[in-house]
Amino acid sequence: MPDPKRDARGTARVVLGLLVAAVMCVAFVGFLAWWLLFDRTASEVENALDDLQADQGVVLVYEATGDVAAATVRYSTTADVEEEVAALPWTKEFTVMGAFRGGTLDVTTGPDGGTVTCRVTVDGVEKRTATASGPDAVAECSDF
């Protein structure tokens, strides 16, 4: 004959197991809903900030200085690259529309050497500066 105490314990374990599984499912669904909501909200904020920056544009200033009479200056704001031999100090200002990321400014001394410095500001905030010395030395400002 079956033992009623043993059957009650077995039933209690099954009910407890089902209860734990249900709580875990509810917790998982809650976490998933929170994650999806948070991810969507962060993405929407990011898109809104990009749109705002795209509407306003930024002022980008490239500067080259040094103790050489002239240096080779190579720069880009997008995919186009410009190069010129320039007397120092040299400055170029752009208004760039959109969420600006990237660009390069390289300043190269000649074979006689010397010291050159590149400096990049975006809306008046310095983003990169670099100095190089020696013959054919390159000061590189990029990834800003």
UniProtKB/TrEMBL annotation:
Entry-linked Pfam families: Mycobact_memb
Cell compartments where the protein resides: Cell membrane
Organism (species): Saccharothrix carnea
Keyword Transmembrane found: yes
Transmembrane segments: 12-37
Organism lineage: Bacteria, Bacillati, Actinomycetota, Actinomycetes, Pseudonocardiales
Cellular component per GO, a single term: plasma membrane
Keyword annotations of the record: Cell membrane, Membrane, Transmembrane, Transmembrane helix
Gene3D superfamilies in UniProt: MmpS1-5, C-terminal soluble domain
Family that this chain belongs to: Belongs to the MmpS family.
Protein's name according to its UniProt entry: MmpS family membrane protein
Superkingdom of the source species: Bacteria
